[in-house]
Amino acid sequence: MNDGNGKTSNGAGAQIFSPPNTVRQKVTGSGGPTPEMLAKADAAIKKMTEDYPSWAINEVDRLGELIQSEADDQTRDQERLKEAYKLSHDMRGQGGSFGYPMITGVAGSFCSFVNSLDAIDGKAVDILQAHVKAMRAVLQNRIAGDGGPIGAKILDGLNKAVAKYAANKG
Amino acid sequence: MALDFSRLNVMIVDDNPHMRILIRDILLGFGVKDVVECPDGSEAISELRHRPADIVIADWMMEPLDGLDFTRLIRTANDSPSRFVPIIMLTGHTERHRIVEARDAGVTEFLAKPVTANGLYARLRSVVENPRQFVQTQSFSGPDRRRRTEDVDGRDRRKD
To answer: Is A38 domain-assigned?
Structure first.
């Protein structure tokens, strides 16, 4: 049913209409990007990749402080863990975007591990600290890309530690 | 021939300044000339009141107003400055229930991190070439969540 204003109603309460489309009016052409467009965009990404370790290390340091505080006072502070999760979640998204997929892998493992925890204990803190150590090693040694055999070994080590923890809990 | 984005005005909403620079520089590489940056959803809404954007690229996790609440406000608030603006949600959340949550908030497109030039171009292209109808019900306001067109046999009982 059309109400005369371009809106249709299906008689069950849903109104369906086409909103003004300023985007289509302003964009001409069609299809995928030209090689020149991609080259410019990739150059921008490459430039950011060079700077990434120098600022990302500050985020890893903050993450390390949070986990170290937990190791020291063992208050199981949920706000602290929440901040640590957010930091790691951000790093998971940023790592690959800035040419460091190893950071995405390690930070993703950190987030999954935190999500799997019912409660944090000493062994869990050790595993979180191992993740922080791995992130720091990647940035300090500028291990861009997938990290090759060393990268695979680091990720494998973390995965085994997480699996062992889960097996002991189960 | 590629899409010519030179007349577009794009807003980037992300609390990480480095991520904003990365997306801005990719957009500039694509030929976008007008890019506005905001550090969170509340500032983005204020900015949109003064200066409408053609497309918004918003991160999910931001404080105080995250990308999801930002989208809900844009789509449903009575005083929304830009109810129909296409919103591309940028996020590290790729679990299915998260995608459904974003879709139900009224997000137009979803771009999973890590960000790539090809991925961002593809979402912009989708916004341009496949505009979606808008659906308004008591429980939802946003781009049509059904992407496929199917003939309905009998009365259309759609409520959402």
So the answer is: no
Residue A45, in any domain of the structure: no
- Cβ–Cβ gap B117/A19 under 8 Å: no
pLDDT band at A99 (very low <50, low <70, confident <90, very high): very high
Is A58's Cβ below 8 Å from some Cβ in B? no
Task: Decide if A23 and B1 are in contact by the 8 Å CB cutoff.
Answer: no
Could A14 and B136 be called an inter-chain contact, meaning their C-beta atoms sit closer than 8 Å?
yes
Taking residues B63-87, what's their average pLDDT? 93
CB contacts < 8 Å between A and B, how many? 156
Instruction: Tell whether A157 is covered by a domain.
Output: yes
ipTM: 0.84
Cβ atoms of B64 and B40 within 8 Å: the answer is: yes
pTM across the whole model:
0.86
Q: What is the pLDDT of residue A6?
A: 61
Please give the residue that has the higher pLDDT: either A16 or A26.
A26
Buried-state track B110-144, b at ≥16 Cβ within 10 A, e below 16: bbbbbbbbebbbebbbebbeebbebbbeeebbbbb
DSSP annotation of B40: S
Domains and CATH numbers, chain B: 9-135 (3.40.50.2300)
Q: What is the tally of structural domains in chain A?
A: 1
Closest B-chain CA to A102? B114
The verdict on A40 touching B (C-beta cutoff 8 Å) is: yes
Q: From the CA atom positions of chain A, what is the Rg in Å? A: 23
**Residue at A40 is within a domain:** no
